[in-house]
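Aim 2 progress update. The chain analyzed this quarter is reproduced below.
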Amino acid sequence: MLQKRGNTAFYAAKSNLAQRKAQLKKRRLKTAYKKGTKAYKYVIPPVEQTELPAFGAEHAMRDTLAQGSTDSHKPLLSVIIPAMNEERTIGAVVRQALRICRDAEVLVIVNGSTDGTAAAAKRAGAQVLRYAEALGHDGGRRIGAAAARGRVLLFTDADIPIPAGHLAPYVRAILDGTDVALNDYNGPVARIPVHPVIEAKHALNSMLARPDLKGASMTAIPHALSRRALEVIGTDTLGIPPLAHAKAVTSGLKVRAVHHVPVGKMNAVRIKKRSGPDPLSQVVWNDHLTAIRWITDTLGPRGGHSDLQRVRILTR
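Predicted structure tokens:
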């Protein structure tokens, strides 16, 4: 009987402790965002923003968004989030993006959605650019970049709520002089066989004489661009991330892998019945081939690399 009472008291105390921990955790989350007041606890304090140099006329941006806004203020940061049927996660993604800094706009490009993604994004505080038709893989990034007004452009996805503390390093890197701030994510390279998309990313960086980047790529989120980088790369090129990556490196922009976010583990696995190869992997693979073709067309058949002392004409 004593043993039974002792066990009951033990489990009751354990349950009370778990409840207290849950309440404390909930209280901490509430300090970051107060419903109805938009009172956010910013990761990059306003003090840091006021020390930035004036935004030059050579980097003039659009005065209005695609929705027809008349506000001429140019924000520090534009967060660009393509979304298609992501009603469940988009609210959390937007709220984390809004916590990065006070002077930010969050653009959600809702395309081809049949659920309540647009309404959920708007409730969370985003500006919504809505398209009835699907824009295709990475099309939303291109549209969002064209509408963005910020001096820093940060790209992320609607299905992965990345904490603001893990988004801010990309913004800080751009403010410190980096042009393209990449996710320092190499993918599961130890897995046998290595996924062809992972191989493609490493091969592209090797071809660009940037093996130090390893698997870091504009194909992966999150990543950020300076306004200068966007002008050099071109908005339309963002629809093919490996090509944008190749243009950024060959143009002499400062490209760095600045912070690690394990998006492979964070992204929920979506089980689909397929009888053939993954169509998304095929798209990304073909995008890398497009980038390689551009490199050889621009820098020569060896992609700008030396042929050392070979005299190939003697073999003909």
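The radius of gyration is 23 Å. Confidence is low (pLDDT under 50) at residues 25-37, 50-70. These observations will guide the mutagenesis experiments scheduled for the next reporting period.
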